[in-house]
Model the fold of this input.
Amino acid sequence: MQGIVERLDFEGMGVVIIGKREFHVPFTAPGDRVEVRKWRKKKRKLIATDFNIIEESPMRVPPKCPYFERCGGCALQHLPYEEQLELKAKRLSESIGLDVDVLPSPRIYGHRNRIDVVISTHGIGFRRKGTWWEAVDIDWCPVFGEASGKVLRSLREFIEDHALSLYSIRENSGFLRYIVIREGKFTGELMVNLVTSGGRLPEEFPNYFEYATSIYWSVNRTKSDVSYGDVERFWKSEFIRERLDDVVYFIHPNSFFQTNSYGAVNLVKKVAELVEGERVLDMYSGVGTFGVYLAKRGFSVEGIEVNPFAVEMARKTAELNGVDATFYIGEDRDVESLKDYETLVLDPPRAGLHPKLIRKILKEQPETVVYVSCNPSTLGKNLKELLEKYRVEEALGLDMFPQTPHVEGIIKLKLKV
Ligand SMILES: C[S@@+](CC[C@H](N)C(=O)[O-])C[C@H]1O[C@@H](n2cnc3c(N)ncnc32)[C@H](O)[C@@H]1O
Done:
């Protein structure tokens, strides 16, 4: 069965209509002529699993990554960046019911400051597209940059020299499970975190990565396929640092940080531009990315975040930058009062705002709300409710995730008069 890809869906798959059926074909571009041989049904969508591109669309650009189409990390490397932005703008605009533009990422390769590389009996790399157990063996990751190649070479040497076993997810056996690489793009500092099952790590381990700023060994004794564990030991620095504009942040292996440092500079600047008044509540403050940046600009900031470790990092970062921002451990649904703040900054997890917090906002009515979200659908849903008392003053998208269909939305709301 053959057809021509008409458009892209919001996951970045090409949509082709053959007869009365609509197929979604991964890694295709509008204008590609494709043959679909096999497919599976997922949430009422027919997704092609066996297909052939018969004629390539003139729109295509050559992907920079040799593993593209096998690796599950990127979906859009074959599309010109303007097309990627258009897809993201369409996705965000439809979700929030407003026409928005998406601010491009300053870099579209080498922008990621973190990769979580699977170490498995199937290979050392990323999960193969569509599987949870296989891994595509990689030498480096162009979306992260050259340091990934250096670390993976050292890792392979270490494995070979010490005949170390690799983890099998199906059998829950083997020692080495993940290596997480993080890099401060503006500081040049590098962190390597090796995650293993329980066992003995050869003491020569840190010698293989002596060029790194910070070297960690973490242990995950569970069956869960996660890239973190209990810190067993570290060598050299406890943290690495990243700088966004004039603020320096601490990064620890177990703490979140915005994954695109170049995009994050745009993000913090934009949030600072939208904030009004003096007193700001940074809700879901994480490691203080917005809070510390805003405090440095003279706002009086309080932050609330559920993860105690992130709060500790935010406090350390505030101290490092000599700013007076106060971060509390707490939950969105338990916020006592919003009355003391002129602006409320919201950056919730993908699930969006807790209904109790929405009710509190509508009742206590802070003058300005700046809502940052990496999930257009929950952003759209929450926005609908907030529009009962608020109007949109500004809305835009920001690309934090080049080569993927993801998009960050930012909306400034003002209380209706
Ligand atoms: C998208 S992140 C934002 C982090 C922060 N703004 C940053 O850029 O570093 C969402 C944050 O919400 C926190 N979180 C999740 N559930 C929460 C809850 N119920 N109450 C408060 N914070 C929560 C997470 O721990 C995470 O740090």
